[in-house]
């Protein structure tokens, strides 16, 4: 799976607005969101894929006020031709190249934004081409508590999960010259993963922003690109992560049950059923479980041949009759 290819934002609009404003609370200078563009199209979701919509946080280039805009995940550059729109090509951007790669560097100075999330999903490669999904988010725990889980790999970590996290992103607006329709989209930045998950889960992770780096990242007017990306990467490297195995049903991007991010026991019967019967004999180890089951079903419908239980008829009478007719001649 690509890094950060599935996300979760489960809180309602009112709670989201409140938590975003709290992140920009500087004591006496309490900042409020001036406008939520296309806010009516937002809804909480448990399983979000590229091509779907999430709110982004940015500052207006006109007056510098704080705003939200419900936009498509997966960058569609403004210079893109009508037939080349594809939200899946650039839903992530490598932080190492955003200052040098043209499609992103042009946005670094004026179109930096942040994406609020509850958390995100990654998949661990298992045997037989199977993948176990994990839900991850930032947590308030010590470095020692988080690092101590590396050897345990798939065990869920301790620590209080943060209700909201912010990921560095870039946004752009594409406009259809014929119809005038505009598409507002964004891409999330990724960085090398923390050693806590890099050794067993995935080599990349989102660039998480703390409250200080969040303010700098979206302040394009006052903070230059180099300073912004440096602060963002420092923040991302400090982020403590928690994780837990979740239901394999959420691998289907159309599944949005409330159990998407719920912890599951990896030794439970539901997971065993997913991977197939583990009690198959060695002689059947190379045969897929579904093939074995099909053979069992097929054999139950096989009927015994009527002639199988009867003794073969003797040909002695026909032989005697043949010789008797021959002697009469």
Concise overview:
It is built from nine helices and 15 strands. The protein has 329 residues and is of the alpha+beta class. The longest helix has 14 residues, at 225-238.
Question: Can you give a write-up of this model?
Answer:
By secondary structure, the protein is of the alpha+beta class. The protein has a domain at 7-119 and 163-243: SOS response associated peptidase-like (hypothetical protein yedk fold). 25% of the residues lie in helices and 26% in strands. The protein contains 9 helices and 15 strands. The strands form 2 sheets. Strands 2, 4, 5, 6, 7, 11, 12, 13 and 14 form a 9-stranded mixed sheet that branches. Strands 1, 3, 8, 9, 10 and 15 form a 6-stranded antiparallel sheet that branches. Helix 5 (211-218) runs antiparallel to helix 6. Residues 142-154, 268-289 and 298-329 have low confidence and may be disordered.
The number of strands is: 15
Share of residues in strands:
25-35%
Q: Total number of helical segments?
A: 9
- CATH domain topology of one domain: hypothetical protein yedk fold
Helix and strand sequence: EHEEEEEHEEEHEEEHEEHHEHHH
Low confidence ranges: 142-154, 268-289, 298-329
Structural class by sheet pairing and helices: alpha+beta
- Global shape: globular
Q: What is the assigned CATH homologous superfamily of one domain?
A: SOS response associated peptidase-like
Alpha-carbon distance between the two ends: 90 Å
| Percent helix | 10-25%
Q: What is the CATH architecture annotation of one domain? A: Alpha-Beta Complex
- Rg, rounded, reads 31 Å
The largest β sheet comes out as: 9 strands, mixed
So what's the CATH class of one domain?
Alpha Beta
Chain-averaged pLDDT: 81
């Amino acid at each position: 799976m690509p890094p950060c290819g599935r996300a979760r934002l489960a809180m309602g609009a009112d709670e989201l607005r409140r938590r975003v404003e709290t992140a920009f609370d500087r004591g006496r200078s309490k900042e409020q969101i001036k406008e939520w563009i296309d806010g009516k199209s937002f809804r909480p979701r448990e399983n979000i894929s590229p091509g779907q919509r999430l709110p982004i946080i940015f500052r207006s280039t006109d007056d510098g006020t704080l705003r939200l805009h419900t936009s498509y995940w997966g960058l569609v550059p403004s210079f893109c031709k009508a037939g080349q729109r594809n939200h899946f090509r650039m839903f992530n951007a490598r932080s190492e190249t955003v200052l040098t790669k043209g499609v992103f560097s042009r946005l670094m100075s004026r179109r930096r934004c942040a994406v609020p999330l509850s958390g995100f999903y990654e998949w661990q490669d298992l045997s037989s081409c199977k993948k176990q999904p994990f839900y991850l988010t930032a947590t308030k725990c010590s470095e020692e508590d988080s690092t101590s889980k590396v050897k345990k790999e798939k065990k869920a970590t301790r620590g209080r999960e943060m209700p909201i996290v912010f990921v560095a992103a870039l946004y752009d607006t594409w406009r259809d010259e014929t119809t005038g329709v505009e598409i507002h989209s964004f891409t999330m930045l990724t960085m090398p993963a923390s050693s806590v998950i890099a050794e067993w889960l995935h080599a990349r992770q989102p660039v998480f922003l703390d409250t200080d780096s969040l303010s700098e990242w979206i302040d394009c007017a006052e903070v230059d690109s180099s300073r912004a990306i440096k602060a963002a990467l420092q923040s991302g490297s400090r982020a403590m992560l928690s994780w837990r195995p979740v239901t394999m049903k959420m691998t289907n991007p159309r599944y949005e049950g409330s159990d998407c991010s719920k912890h599951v026991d990896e030794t439970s019967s539901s997971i065993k059923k997913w991977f197939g019967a583990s009690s198959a004999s060695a002689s059947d180890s190379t045969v897929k479980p579904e093939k074995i089951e099909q053979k069992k079903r097929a054999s139950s419908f096989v009927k015994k041949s009527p002639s199988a239980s009867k003794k073969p008829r003797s040909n002695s009478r026909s032989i005697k009759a043949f010789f008797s007719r021959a002697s009469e001649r």
